Amino acid sequence: MPQITIDYSDIVEDAFDREGFARALHEATVEIAAAKPEACKTQFRPSAYTAFGYEDPGARGHAIVHVAIGLLAGRSDETKARLTQAALELLREHVADTGAALHASAEVRDLDPSYRKSDR
């Protein structure tokens, strides 16, 4: 915990400072949601195919970045909202303009009570 997943259109691959974004998001998560730095884990998943509305996907005029943050239950709605807002602001700083319209979103959800982790 926290479990962070970033899905993004591959057309922002070269424009996305993933290392800088992960570090900044981890710092924000520690500050805002009282997470431990060593607990922050982030996976980036590029998508080769993005469909937007009725646009021909081959036109590649739109890019999507979605940040999903899973936290153990107990954070207030205000804390979750502050963290999602911080994630969106950090995306603006860490994704350079590609010429495509960037559609960024973020959410914070409670991990299911069945959540467990294992380290080796």
From TrEMBL:
Keywords: Isomerase. This is Isomerase. It comes from the Bacteria. One of its GO terms (molecular function) is 5-carboxymethyl-2-hydroxymuconate delta-isomerase activity. SUPFAM superfamilies: Tautomerase/MIF (SSF55331). It comes from Streptomyces filipinensis. The lineage of its organism: Bacteria, Bacillati, Actinomycetota, Actinomycetes, Kitasatosporales.
